[in-house]
Design goal:
The structure is a homodimer.
Chain A lengths: L1 H21 L8 E2 L5 E2 L2 E7 L7 E8 L4 E2 L2 E2 L4 E14 L5 E4 L3 E4 L5 E5 L5 E8 L6 E2 L5 H5 L3
Antiparallel strand pairs in A: 1-3, 2-5, 3-4, 4-11, 6-12, 7-8, 7-9, 7-10, 7-11
């Protein structure tokens, strides 16, 4: 019985230590976004807003499993750097891609697309968005068929 | 004794599962940088190079514990997003800061500074660098006194 106790303490200690050192989400969640252009739970946090020196915005977006943005396009394009979890990314007329932690997606100006979490896993990404050509153009929600499609 | 075995299996299973899911480095190391402008082991990987659409470069830099860049400045400035570990960041005439996973540093154009890992922990960051005003200007190595200073 003592051994069980020792192993329980060891298990707890290892997990706590790893958690304290490097685990858990990298970024605080920031403010929960109102469900205007997405389905599910999404948190957005701006790391820098564009100005005359840094002519691009940088944000962290955190999606709960199942959450996804509406179809949209960026007049200046956008680069997504996936830092946690597993998500979907789809451009109009192309198959849905699975994107994972460590991967990078470059979305060119004007390309209609959507991104979000998979049904089973949340996803977090850093987005950098050139600001010189204007803000995101929102289109229409992703249909259930599009979201659940295997293609 | 059986219980010890069960707990060992549980411990192994929990750790393996966590490792497979989300742990280990986010980004592959890329190419090890030759020691021209830094001390210690540094790996640099370009995520995008600047072009007419994305007028900033994005790179991942991975530093082993103890590694640090020379003093330098960026004609266009730079934003650092710490994704793993613990590092140092210092601007000329200011105290050395400790920067941790999840933190963001905005370095303005022309400001002399250096960054790197702490002696005990490696650090990884994503750097975005506006390209329009030219490349990094390298100055001189960080002295041992500067690196080890508590200020």
């Amino acid at each position: 019985m003592k051994r069980v106790l020792y192993f329980s303490i060891l298990l707890f200690a290892v997990l706590s230590n790893r958690a304290a050192a490097q685990e858990g989400p990298i970024f605080p969640k920031g403010e929960k976004s109102p469900n205007v252009h997405h389905v599910g739970n999404v948190w957005l946090r701006e790391l820098n807003s564009p100005d005359s020196v840094f002519t691009y915005g940088t944000s962290v977006a955190i999606f709960d499993a199942g959450a996804r943005l509406d179809w949209h396009s960026h007049p200046g394009g956008q680069i997504l750097i996936i830092t946690e979890g597993i998500g979907y990314y789809q451009e109009k007329g192309k198959p849905k891609q699975i994107v994972r932690r460590g991967e990078v997606v470059k979305c060119l100006p004007g390309v209609e697309h959507w991104h979000g979490a998979t049904p089973e896993s949340g996803v977090t990404y850093i987005a950098t968005s050139p600001s010189q050509n204007g803000k995101t153009i929102w289109l229409h929600p992703v249909s259930k068929e599009e979201y659940n499609s295997k293609k």
